[in-house]
From TrEMBL:
GO terms for biological process: cellular response to hypoxia. GO terms for molecular function: ferrous iron binding; L-ascorbic acid binding; peptidyl-proline dioxygenase activity. Its cofactor is L-ascorbate. Residues 106-202 form the Fe2OG dioxygenase domain. It holds the Pfam family 2OG-FeII_Oxy_3. Keywords: Dioxygenase, Iron, Metal-binding, Oxidoreductase, Vitamin C. SMART domains: P4Hc. This is 2OG-Fe(II) Oxygenase. InterPro entries: HIF_prolyl_hydroxylases, Oxoglu/Fe-dep_dioxygenase_dom, Pro_4_hyd_alph, Pro_4_hyd_alph_FE2OG_OXY. The keyword Thylakoid does not apply. The lineage of its organism: Bacteria, Pseudomonadati, Myxococcota, Myxococcia, Myxococcales.
């Protein structure tokens, strides 16, 4: 991992975010750092610390694997680990999104999600409803080596007025989209599928 390396958006990425509401980048941190982060994510998933994702907030919170079948856990800042270094890259990405795309982002949460396979999926949803939360941008990084078509598990984006776009969750792929604007879903997954998702909040958020 390049300490202090900058993350900059290309003109095409900025334009895609503005017009379509998303962009993808096939190589975010480079193979070596990606393999190290993947190894840590896998170890965490296998250690049993992840828990079933809920689908509603607060008292209404329930587990419903017919809506989403992943196991999740937060990734906090941590020195001297590959996941901590990846978290730093997400922080730099947030800065780049603010400077390059004027999103005015502040803090972010980072979540590790593991779909165990066996058809686990996440039904079509948005990450933020306008006015209800201050989540502005979603960035997802995938940690799956040798992902095959028959493993399913693509992220399907539904950009407005455009055909759906499928993104296979391949190692080191990054996808960034506007949290309120892009409906999306995870199609049934037939192999273990690891992803790290950052939700960036508006700067005015507490
Ligand atoms: C989510 C989500 C998509 C993915 O966790 O909200 O939509 O590709 N994840 O893992
Ligand atoms: Mn989502």
């Amino acid at each position: 991992m390049l300490k202090g390396a900058r993350v900059e958006l290309t003109d095409l990425e900025v334009e895609a975010l503005g017009t379509r509401g998303f962009f993808t980048r096939p190589f975010f941190i480079g193979n070596e750092a990606a393999l190290a982060a993947r190894a840590e994510a896998l170890a965490r998933a296998e250690s049993g610390v992840l828990h079933a994702a809920g689908i509603r907030r607060g008292a209404d919170k329930t587990q419903d694997s017919s809506v989403r079948g992943d196991l999740i856990g937060w990734v906090e800042p941590e020195p001297d680990t590959a996941l901590g270094a990846l978290r730093e890259r997400f922080a730099l990405l947030g800065r780049a999104l603010s400077e390059g795309a004027y999103l005015g982002l502040g803090r972010f949460d980072l979540q590790l999600a593991c779909y165990p396979g066996g058809g686990a999926h996440y039904s079509r949803h948005v990450d933020a409803f306008p006015g209800q939360s201050n989540r502005r941008a979603t960035a997802i990084w995938y940690a799956n080596e040798a992902w095959k078509t028959e493993h399913g598990g693509v992220l399907r984006l539904h950009p407005k007025d455009l055909p759906p776009v499928d993104i296979p969750p391949m190692l080191d792929t990054l996808v960034v989209f506007l949290s309120e604007r892009i409906e999306h879903e995870v199609l049934p997954t037939h192999a273990r599928r690891l992803a790290l998702t950052a939700w960036f909040y508006g700067r005015d958020s507490g």
